[in-house]
Structures are given as structure tokens and as C-alpha cells.
Amino acid sequence: MKLFSTIVVSSCLATQAFGVTPVVSKTKGLTKPALVTHKSPLRQKHAADVSPLFRDPTITRGGAIPGVQAYSDALEKNPITTKALTSLVGWFLGDLLAQVELPRHSIQLFIAGGPVDYKRLATLSFFGFIYHGPSGHYFYNWLDTQIPGTDATPVFTKVAIDQLFWCPIFMSVFFTYLGLVNGDSLSAIGSKIKNDLLTACQGSWKVWPAVHIINFKFVSNKWRIPYINAVQIAFNMFLSLLGSKKGA
């Protein structure tokens, strides 16, 4: 008992020495700690303005990732231009990666070699801008309008239309564009399409059905082209190599 009394008296003397006045609750239940005199900056209403690590997408422009909201707004306000520019970047990266070397092992990615062909790089980038982005915008808008829904039937129907009808058209335009840029004759362009169209479509059928199942099931219409370009960087490497192959 004496020991307990000594501990209580010592505690009171210690709190008085450090200037802490014990607070006695006058209400039932839990109360705020006596030592809390202000809110933490991270608990304030505009926490996103205080620390970039706690960005509130309803407060801070760009949401959790800076720039995403601005890009989303651009897709709403200027969808064709934004998707065209997105495809330009996607095709630029795809062809550039198809041409660069792997310095660690002194081998090339895929089969390309030598210095970067800037004409080819610009040609394919411009194709992404002038055709891939805009045509994709109109095609997928039309497809979503004609076949609405995300159930199995509309999703697989869209995939079939995309791969069996749109893919051959797209590949034919791609080879025609490259031929015209290179100054090839119409007969040479026709031979290129005849020789490589099936190969291009077969390469597409190995990749894009699975990609488009996710696309048509989960991706909203305005994000289709950005999503496709994210995947297509790798596929564009295949197309750029196939497109640069000399026709027979």
C-alpha cells in the first residue's frame, strides 16, 4: 500500500514538473487525448495540397498520378487529336525498339540492326498519327454503338469483327501507305499485300483476341486507343519489321 501511494505521489510530482495538467473527463465514453491541441497536416481538409504522397483525386488535378486527369480531359474535349497523338507515340516507340541494340550482349532486338533509320521511324510514327488513332476512334465508336454490352456474346462478336474484318483492312492500308511513301508502284504494293497480308493477320490473331477480350469487357470506349497503344508498342515492333521487309 505504501509502495502504491509512493508511485501515485511521484507521478503527480512528475507531471507538474513537466507542466502537464491531468485532464479529468466530465463525459461518459471516449474523449480526445488531452495532449492533442491541433490536427495533423495530413488530416486537414486539403491534405493533397500539403503532401504529394496523399493526393486526393477529388481535390488535386491529376488524381493519384499527375497528368492522368489532364489526359482524360483531353480525351473528352479533343478525342481524335488526343488519340492520334497517342498512336504517334505508340508507333514511334514500337519502331524505335525494333531498331535499337541491346548493348549488354551486343545483339539486336528481333532482326533489326545497324543505325536507326530515321526516315522509317518518322514514316511509321506519322502512320500512327494520321491513320491508326483517328480510324480506331471511329471504328470502335461504331462497334460499341452497333454492339453494346459487355456480356460474353457482344464481347466475342466484337473480337471476331475486329480480327476477321477490320484487321485485314487495317493491314492492307498499312502496306499501301508504306508503299506509297517509298515510291513503289501499284503492282509492287499489290505483291506486298499478297505476300505479307496473311502473315500480318496471323501475327495479329496470336496476340489481339486475348487483348480485345479484356478491351471490350473492361475498358471504356474513350480509353480503348490508349489501352491498345500500350499493348501495341510490342506488336508494332513486329509490324515495323514486317513492313520494312522487301517484297518479292
Task: Kindly describe this structure.
The chain is an all-alpha fold and 248 residues long. Helices cover 67% and strands 2% of the residues. The protein has helices at 2-17, 47-50, 68-77, 79-99, 118-146, 152-182, 186-218, 224-244; strands at residues 101-102, 107-108.
Which features does this protein show?
mainly alpha, two-stranded antiparallel sheet, 67% helix, single chain, 248 residues, globular
Describe what is shown at a glance:
The chain has 248 residues and is an all-alpha fold. Helix content is 67%, strand content 2%.
List the helices and strands and how they pair.
Blueprint (H helix, E strand, L loop, with lengths): L1 H16 L29 H4 L17 H10 L1 H21 L1 E2 L4 E2 L9 H29 L5 H31 L3 H33 L5 H21 L4
Antiparallel strand pairs: 1-2
Order of helices and strands: HHHHEEHHHH
Report the sheet with the most strands, covering strand number, pairing sense and barrel closure.
2 strands, antiparallel
Spatial shape: globular
- Terminal CA distance: 105 Å
Model regions low in confidence, pLDDT < 50 over at least 5 residues = 44-57, 104-112
Give the percentage of residues in beta strands.
under 5%
The number of strands is: 2
Rg (CA only): 31 Å
Q: What is the average per-residue confidence, as pLDDT, rounded to a whole number?
A: 78
User: What count of helical segments does DSSP give?
Assistant: 8
What structural category arises from helix and sheet content?
Answer: mainly alpha
Percent range of helical residues: 55-70%
- Record the strand order, biggest sheet: 1-2
